[in-house]
């Protein structure tokens, strides 16, 4: 099969012909029909992820068709249209048996712990626990865009952030995660403030549900601005970018008993940011992480998509070919444009 391969961290990936994958006894092989480009792929390529063994094929936001299933797979067969969360749970550990596959102790992640979906085929283990059937009407490009950012935002807003109608939600950073979170929080009935450095993204955020925007490049004190708009602070706030400044602001702009959810990755020099711990105590703030979403939780999200309350297709950006993927991957270190780039030609 054709695949995007890198032999060394930070060196230009190339298109190579490599062996087709075989399914594990409990796994499947999926013919990839769409795979999204994500900043975490860029982090992986740069060598920020300890789990990656070289040479490596990136890619973790995928959708496609099952072409082969292992002998122990009972729920899936060739021909079924599927997607999969990026954190693939083993289905057997304590976390998985308590319903928390997203933090499985033995999780695999396509494109990180093993070869990913920037290829014609990808192998996914523990298929019965992790595969999600796609509605007939959903395009592969839309389905691929769910796998990482959209489901992570859904869990961050709904399950971790516990957003309820009428609450104020601040979203720091309007890339793929941030825009997804704005759409989801608005659909949940919250009043959402979008915060970013560019007017283009803020205008788009308003179109998909934000009731207020703050351009951080022109606002000397973002925390003060959020507190003014919300009359005291956000009930829930998310750092969707992953930067010490946005992380700090997202915690500092909360009202008493507010919830901060960290979704933007904090790696390398950013792994240990400053936290206003005085406020965490005095205001009884909650600081939560959010890491993907369990396959079984897709159902609620899929119903909101089916009924038109969520429109992830609006967040799909440029469609490109596998040949264009290496350049697009290397460019992910800069700030993303609007919409998630998706490889749809292999
Ligand atoms: Zn597990
Ligand atoms: Zn991702």
From TrEMBL:
Protein name: Alcohol dehydrogenase GroES domain protein
Keyword flag Oxidoreductase: yes
GO molecular function: oxidoreductase activity, acting on the CH-OH group of donors, NAD or NADP as acceptor; zinc ion binding
InterPro entries: ADH-like_C, ADH-like_N, ADH_Zn_CS, ER, GroES-like_sf, NAD(P)-bd_dom_sf, Zn_alcohol_dh
Similarity comment: family membership: Belongs to the zinc-containing alcohol dehydrogenase family.
Originating species: Mesorhizobium prunaredense
Keyword Cytoplasm applies: no
Top-level lineage group: Bacteria
